[in-house]
Structures are given as C-alpha cells and as structure tokens.
Write a structure and sequence with these properties.
Length: 195
C-alpha cells in the first residue's frame, strides 16, 4: 500500500497541474467569448466584409474561368472553320485536277498541229485556270526523270528495266503530275521506276 500512497501524491500533483491548466484554458475561453459578445457588432461588419470579399473573389474566379473557356471555344471554332474551308477547297481543287490534265494534253496536241493562234488562245485560258488554282493554294510537285523514288511522296504504277545504270531504283518517267494543297499532298505523282 505504501507504493500506492507514494504514487498517489505524484499522480495527484500531476492531476492538479492538468486541472489547473484546463481551468486556465476554460477561463481564457470564457474571457474571449465575453469579449467577442461585447464587440459582436464590430465583428459582424468585418465578417460580413470578409464574406463579401470571398464572394467577390469567387465570382471573379468564375468569370475568369468562363472567359478563358470562351476564348478556347473561339479559337477552336476558328480553327475548325479554317479546316472546313481547306477541306471544301480541297474537294473543289481535286475535282479540277483532271481538267488541268486535259489542258496539258490538249496543249501538247495543239503544239504538234502547229496552229499558232489556237495555241495562243488555249495557253491564255490554261494559264488563267492554273493561276486561279495556284491562288487557292495548289502547287505542282516537282518530279522529273532521274529523281530518287520515295514511296511516301510518289506512287509507282510500274517498274521497267532501267535504260541506264544511273536510273536503277530511280524515276524513269512521270505518267501523271502530283499536286499539293498547302502542305498536304492531294494527288501523288504517278511514276515509272527502273529496276
């Protein structure tokens, strides 16, 4: 029992200290409550002001997000519109390529006939047509005999024995011209390669 008695005074003194600390904390809390109640009218104004500031910040943030979302929407629709015009333009220009090919063939035949006036008239129409398509973004791909064959930009329609060793694995003849619209190939040049 003496052990209990010796431990009890220490435990009791520890309990007393804890109770004293708790009592002091409770008194401080009560004092703060009474001070807050007396200055309640001042605090309502400040807390209301803080609430208004918080609401304003929230609305500003909401507005900025909505504005950014609208800007992204405008940019996206503008980009889609440009892509749509390019695609629509591509369809029209692609449809005109056979007409351009026919003009090339007609000019070759008229040159053989040696009719200068007819050649001059057809060349005027051909150049006007070609310039109109160029203004819309059409570019002819430069491919000639002796160029290296590249499967990414050329379409090989056949392979023949090379007339010389220099033309092995290279382009021997261009059967149909290729065209680009901007950076995009809309018709690959059809070529004959040498083996």
């Amino acid at each position: 029992m003496s052990n209990k008695d010796t431990n009890n005074p220490e435990e009791e003194s520890l309990k007393d200290k804890v109770e004293d600390i708790l009592d002091e904390a409770i008194e401080e809390a009560d004092n703060k409550d009474s001070e807050e109640k007396s200055s309640d009218s001042e605090e309502d104004g400040v807390s209301e002001k803080d609430q208004l500031k918080a609401a304003l910040e929230k609305e500003k943030d909401k507005f900025l997000r909505l504005f950014a979302e609208f800007e992204n929407y405008k940019r996206r629709t503008s980009k889609e519109r440009v892509e749509m015009f390019k695609t629509a333009n591509q369809d029209v220009v692609s449809a005109m390529l056979p007409v351009l090919d026919d003009f090339d063939r007609a000019l070759n035949e008229i040159r053989k006939a040696k009719d200068k006036e007819l050649l001059k008239g057809v060349e005027l129409i051909y150049n006007k047509f070609k310039e109109t398509l160029r203004a819309k973004g059409l570019e002819q791909m430069e491919v000639k005999e002796g160029d290296s064959f590249d499967a990414d930009i050329h379409e090989a329609i056949t392979q023949i024995p090379a007339p010389s060793d220099k033309l092995k694995g290279k382009i021997v003849d261009v059967v149909e011209k290729g065209y680009k619209l901007g950076d995009r190939i809309i018709r690959f040049p059809k070529v004959v390669t040498g083996k």
